[in-house]
Amino acid sequence: MDDLTQNLALALGASWASGINLYAAILVLGLMGASGTVDLPAGLEILADPLVLLAAGAMYLVEFFADKVPGVDSIWDAVHTFIRIPAGALMALGAVGDLGPLTPLGDTAALLLGGGVAAASHAAKAGTRVLINTSPEPFTNWIASVTEDLGVIGGLLLALKHPAVFLVALALFFLLLIWLLPKLWHALQRVWTALRKHFGGDRAPPSPVVATPRTASGAAVDGRPPAAPSKV
């Protein structure tokens, strides 16, 4: 039961962290594995490879700066939708490898669970960043970015050292997310509507030209002289 809890917490923790900052998650797990602080499952031992750590470190530096620039962070998040979620699924699959050989159904379940958790944390991060970017000052971006990085490090350490506590915290996270995501969706819709109005996407069509009727005296209301009466 302890092994099951440990592997489940690691699988879900790695997936959750990958949805927020994949490269930080790889660095934390890889460095702890390389230093012997933890024994990584066989499916995650590749994270301790020096080349993997070097690549993850380089990408983390890029994300460290891109994640703090308003607008650039949202573009970065949009691109990484196609990276973080598959990576989170693979992290979960690698973490449960020590439980024994899995059936194809078990592999599929691990991939779906990991991908789902990564998608949830990624959606929460990307959605809140879009809302934060509506603020003209950059400080909230910096605070959010540093908080996310510290959360990834703290969450993974909790999953490795106190797996049961992490699972409870993750359950609370999902309860909060169920409440938060609809509010984020409605807020994003309002932002999108405001952007469309700002850039002219919702301009009202021009009103049709109505012919100006002439008065009984023959003078035109629009100021043009009336036509001369015809002679009989």
Descriptive report:
The protein is mainly alpha-helical. It has one domain. The protein is 70% helix and 0% strand. The chain has helices at 2-34, 50-66, 72-95, 104-132, 139-161, 163-198. Helix 1 (2-34) crosses helix 5 (139-161).
What is this structure's SSE topology?
Elements: H1 2-34, H2 50-66, H3 72-95, H4 104-132, H5 139-161, H6 163-198
Helix pairs in contact: 1-2, 1-3, 1-4, 1-5, 1-6, 3-4, 4-6, 5-6
Label this structure with key terms.
single chain, 232 residues, globular, mainly alpha
Helix content: 55-70%
Strand content is under 5%
Q: What is the count of structural domains? A: 1
* Main β sheet profile: none
State the total count of DSSP E strands.
0
Note the overall shape: globular
Mean pLDDT: 86
Terminal Cα span: 112 Å
Enumerate how many helices there are, as a single number: 6
Condensed summary:
With 232 residues, the protein is mostly helical. It has six helices and no strands.
